[in-house]
Amino acid sequence: MKKKFSILHSPFSIRKRAGVFDSGSGGLTVVKSLLEHHLFDEIVYYGDTARVPYGPKDPATITRYALEALEFFKNFEIDLMITACNSVSAHALPELRINADFDIYGVIEPGIMALKNANLPRASRILVLGTKATIGSSRYQNGIRELGFENIEAIAPSLFVPIVEEGIFKGEVLQSALDHYFKALRPPDAIILGCTHFPLIADAIRDYFPNRPLLIHSGEAIAEYLENNGCKPRKQGKSDLKIFASENPDGLKRIAKKWLAL
Known about the structure:
By secondary structure, the protein is α/β, with parallel strands linked by helices. The chain has helices at 28-37, 59-73, 86-91, 93-99, 108-117, 132-137, 139-146, 160-165, 172-182, 202-208, 218-228, 249-260; strands at 17-22, 42-47, 80-83, 103-105, 126-130, 152-155, 190-194, 214-217, 240-245. It is built from 12 helices and 9 strands.
């Protein structure tokens, strides 16, 4: 019988190894936050680089891919798995939790909790950015509405992911994409970066708006969420990181070396 999901089985402080799953390289932004918070002895990262991006795919396909990734992690003695991919978090968590014998955490609930903890006025304008699959699920919108916010805009800036994958973090190409999606928007008070790629262009997104809105991204949100629910930071030493990919693992390792300064 499979173990039911719960909020961090006690005592969490003895947990040492986490698996992090993403559709590609974007989940390394989540790994970066986990490393900075010193939460685990070891992190095993798996990027499904052969089938990135997940955002345009239908929920059934996303769930099937996520279950295949779960089988990969069963080769390791991990204590929990984090689905860094917002599209997976939006559609596949129930099936993943039914089929796993360790706890599995998504990034949408932590993102919503981070917004709650920001203590913004309920009249604030909230902008949610995500893939088509994430925005189409309405998981962020419904959760934010439950907090009492009503002024919510949710868009899927699909061009951002390939731009980031090309290593373009500033310049005319990115600026044109920002204009395309943001030009008609009223400046938001807070932006949820509901895709693991978006933190890499976070400065450009924030600077586009004259009021420089609050940004919430998955990596910091899940790290703080785990800490607030009993995951104690390591007292010394660096976390080990193992990186795997469904295609071109050496390429993913090169990206990790660049992004994470390994």
